[in-house]
Amino acid sequence: MAEHPAYPVGLRLAGRRVVVIGGGQVAQRRLPALIATGADIVLVSPSATPSVEAMADAGELRWERRPFADGDLSDAWYVLIASSDTEANTRASAEAERNRTWCVRSDNAEAATAWTPATGRSEGVTVAVLTGRDPRRSAGVRDAIVEGLRDGSLVAPRHRTRTPGVALVGGGPGDPELITVRGRRLLAEADVVIADRLGPRDLLDELPPHVEVIDAAKIPYGRYMAQEAINNALIEHAKAGKAVVRLKGGDPFVFGRGMEEAQALAEAGIACTVVPGISSSISVPGAAGIPVTHRGVAHEFTVVSGHVAPDDPRSLVDWPALARLRGTLVLLMAVDKIGAIALTLIAHGKSPSTPVALIQEGTTAAQRRVDATLETAAEAARTGDVRPPAVIVIGDVVSVGAGPGGDGGSGDGDGHDGPGGGPDRG
Fold first, then answer.
1. Quick one: pLDDT at residue 224?
2. Given this model, what pLDDT does residue 311 score?
């Protein structure tokens, strides 16, 4: 039998009885995929890992808390044997053979009638790889294929008709490797990409030549008409049957005007998918060695847009309330307003010695960090020539961790499209 290859097949187990012998680490790894099939799973084991027990408590499987007994495999369509009891495994394997039930045996692949392939999934595609007696190679081949499908480097054209629409994709804080898997895949499948200047620009170089890339900062009609022009461009290309990606810095809904675009698309009857991105408000401080929360230091953090000064009538921020908070304050789009903000916070009770970090171009090769206090932040920004995009962190967490030597940082929100319209990069 070992000289012949296994016959690959996809089992449709929904509603069908599947028996798992053993509740240890092997079962813990295999059970989620079995649960996802909708199988009627019976676990036979005197003990189980906490994760497996949680699956039973959640009603995802039935747990018989005892050793294997003859007859347990009756009416089973599929069996997974994964216990540490070799004698019980042998008896269960023999029963499966008598019942003509396909059986995977984790402790002895040669005694099994089925092998578990290394599997992975990406956007409705299941990849299953078998390489005989080399499971590590199977996993390596699986990982390479799935990663290629996810990031678009392995092109698998769709032969069914695509539904035109728009994806609002959060590109993350700046490092092109920090975009989500789904965001990167949608970029690879796009016909048109409308990109903010603060999106991960390096990803645009990877797009195929036929993809039309539109710089949102150069859409005509002037600065204050830019958002309306962007909305119109999204609608126009989607109505032309194109798959459109709106690539934004950070997260589309964190100072990125993503909801305005989603509303415009909804009014035009165009399907819209929102792909969240890693917000610079959390990721940039973290990359610079600053946790926005830390046990015994900060139990909350507040993210604020600083694109208008505290005394500006357009400001919606309750600065006196922020000054009273004991946690972390994260400012986006605030480089040129940090002086006024610091004075306001101090005037309402914040200590002038509160630590401050200004992190420019976080998570990129150009990242740098300038440390100060609330009293000296404005001067530090000036003498340090700190420029947008930058994230400003105020609070005792600044003094926790790596300090100025931390190796990450940038900002999300200095947008091209007018006050309040910047993406989430600082």
1. 55
2. 94
